[in-house]
Amino acid sequence: MNDDDLLRYSRQIMLEQIDIAGQERLLASRVLVVGAGGLGSPVALYLAAAGVGHLSLADADRVDLSNLQRQIAHGHADIGRNKAESAAQAVLALNPGCTVTILPDHLDGTAMAAAVGAVDLVLDCTDRFSSRYAINAACRMAGVPLVSGAAIRFSGQLAVFDPRDAESPCYACLYPPDDSGDEALSCAQNGVVAPLVGLIGAFQALEAIKLLSGAGTPHRGLSTFDGLTGQWRHFRLPRDPACPVCGV
User: Fold this and answer.
1) Which domains does the chain carry?
2) Helix 129-142 to helix 109-117 angle, to the nearest 10 degrees?
3) Which letter, b or e, does each residue of 18-28 get, where b requires 16 or more Cβ atoms within 10 Å of its Cβ?
4) Are 17 and 217 within 8 A, CB to CB?
5) pLDDT tens digits for 107-155?
6) pTM for this predicted structure
7) Active-site residues: which are they?
8) Running DSSP on this structure, what letter comes out for residue 192?
């Protein structure tokens, strides 16, 4: 780190759980953010601000007027622009020292495997089960930790899935493929209150920073948040031995 880095990240470096060693780990980290919308916006901005050295931003969608209510990486002038490109500009405006790779196409198959295999951590900021299953499978195959978030209406949730931990479940343990449907997580059809995605996205970014820097204890189980009551709940999430993805 140079003098500017020491000043920029000084408030994190002074934390004994991070210190210079943890900050250097962040600066050396490569992270994939899949989805640059409601969750991906605060995730990308906070990770860049915190000093993650390389962000890959993946999103094939374009900014729509209806997105601006909650997707804070984009502005009115970005309407019609690819979300990964727009979010990358916001990230670089915040921290020019962050290296950003723009992935403006839908990740699937070999492209998904390549993107996941090139990073240290993946954050799932999508809103469709089909995408979540594909990301989860790629992370399990590559042995890369996955931080998953979801937000709909007034409800949010977060879980961390770490293939490096023999006891860690995967996303398919939580939502078996036969029990889900894409329409269940569509903000376009169900709506979402604006600050909720910021809250869950910030939670995802915090867990990512912990995993990358070595600070604290990684999140275990499933945490859910009810925005109408302000209450958090935490559930144990054991690995499913019959899981089609991670079962043994």
Assistant:
1) 3-235 (3.40.50.720)
2) 50
3) beeebbbbbbe
4) no
5) 999 999 999 999 999 999 998 888 999 999 999 999 999 999 999 999 9
6) 0.95
7) 187
8) B
